[in-house]
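User: Sequence recovery, please. Input:
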């Protein structure tokens, strides 16, 4: 039976929420293998002078633990 581990990461993007999620997965995949899924816990946007400047996400990333 496989073991699944979950880590929480925070990521941001100046483009979109989608890009922030993709940035999170891209960065985590540099050091962690076997990523199975991403659960977005929270979404936020930073605003300056009435304009959205960056998007942020808090994600739980799950991956299978191997020997």
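Assistant: Recovered sequence (67 residues):
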């Amino acid at each position: 039976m496989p073991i699944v581990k979950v880590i929480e990461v925070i990521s941001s993007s100046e483009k979109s929420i989608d890009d922030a999620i993709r940035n999170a997965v891209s960065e985590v995949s540099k050091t962690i293998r076997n990523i199975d899924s991403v659960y977005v816990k929270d979404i936020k946007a930073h605003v300056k002078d009435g304009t959205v400047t960056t998007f942020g996400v808090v994600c739980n990333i799950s991956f299978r633990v191997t020997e």
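The chain has one helix and three strands.
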